[in-house]
Amino acid sequence: MKKPRAGGEIDAYCTKCRLDLNHRIVAMVGDAVKQVECLTCRGTHAYRRPRSEIAAAAEKRLSAKASGSSPPKSARGPSVPRETLAARAEREQKHTWEKSIAGQPSSAFRAYRVFETFNPGDLVRHSKFGDGVIARVIDRGKVEVLFQEGPKTLAHNQQAT
Hints:
There is one protein chain. The longest helix is centred in the middle third of the chain and has 17 residues, at 51-67. The chain has 2 domains: 9-75, no CATH class; 86-155, no CATH class. The protein has helices at residues 51-67, 85-101, and strands at 9-14, 19-29, 32-38, 44-46, 110-111, 123-126, 130-139, 142-147, 150-155. The mean pLDDT is 84. By secondary structure, the chain is an alpha+beta fold. A 5-stranded mixed beta sheet has the order 5-6-7-8-9. Strands 1-2-3-4 form a 4-stranded antiparallel beta sheet, with no helix packed on it. Helix content is 21%, strand content 34%. The chain is elongated and about 75 Å long.
């Protein structure tokens, strides 16, 4: 394999085309490729390893882990980013919603109305957002409701006019 050099060509992931394509090396720092130009769309962006190369490295790590041996740390490549806290919280909220709603008869749901008072765990049916479960009471006038599309803050315990 040839050593990359400025002006040379390299396979990279194009952020505009969203594909592994041939790129021209625009900038390097030492031996590391830093910036490339896509030869298909002519977009210039930071160098990103081809997705196929990343997948192959991940597969190699998994097979090594299954056999009980681990490649040296230098051969492992960059670490895979862990799930963000926001994504984890969203996944847990969706799981809570599914667990609360699953198997409930339609008679278990109360129609959502702002003048009614709700408690955590109550099941509600909203005309726009659908079925939900009261996650928490924020204050005496607001509740957080988990719906399939995510949590919403709604009014409750309001005086009817």
